[in-house]
Design brief:
By secondary structure, the protein is an alpha+beta fold. It has a single domain, classed as 4-Layer Sandwich (Deoxyribonuclease I, Chain A), CATH 3.60.10. Helix 5 runs parallel beside helix 6.
Amino acid sequence: MKKQSTQIVSYNVNGIRAALKKGFDEWLAAHRYDIVCLQETKAHREQVDVESIEKLGYHHHWFSAEKKGYSSVASFSLREPDQVVKGCGIEKYDREGRILRSDFGDWSVLNCYFPSGTSGEERQNFKYDFLDDFYTWIEALKRERPQLIIVGDYNIAHTEIDIHNPKSNKNTSGFLPKERAWMTKWLESGFTDAFRHANADLVEYSWWSYRAGARAKNKGWRIDYQSVSDNLKEQIVAARQLTDVVHSDHCPVWMEIEL
């Protein structure tokens, strides 16, 4: 089967209804990316008017948290997936609507919203549990679906180049040694960070605090990733942060890959 260029966007929209009010659908109409994976939609399907996106030709699938207005992911694609799988089968994560898998032929895209640990020790420990369980689950999934693209908000800045002030944030959730070590282990387990593969030394961020004009000063973190199984990494054409797109405190992460 002939490979074709596919553009994949991952975007934590910090509320899809708020993003739509800020022109998200108009931005999408101007670009028509092949696959768009949204995290932190904070909505159930029936709460969102997506008619303007459907008119662009997008199929869409949702996996929402039990708790209204919390977490949740949704995936949009111009091609209807062959199969969509909600969750990872572990109830405490699936109740929060964190993982949505779409299969296209022999490759799969997983739209993931990793937990944040910023609200305290309990959620930080929940995050560590998720990281360990997710790693184990993916190891098993790779045997069934070896060509994987795992995109989303990982809530971890991996190395010092991925955060504006590594020294002052060394004890901050999202840049803790244990989290960063997990990312290293992850990327040594058969996955490639698409952005860093395409841009070895480029400094770009995907999230900025709303405080102190952080975005205007570009004091950000790169916590949104597109991990590509190593058997697909040579097919990565380009990858960037779309930093001028503003519907959220995150920006979209974009990749072009031949699949």
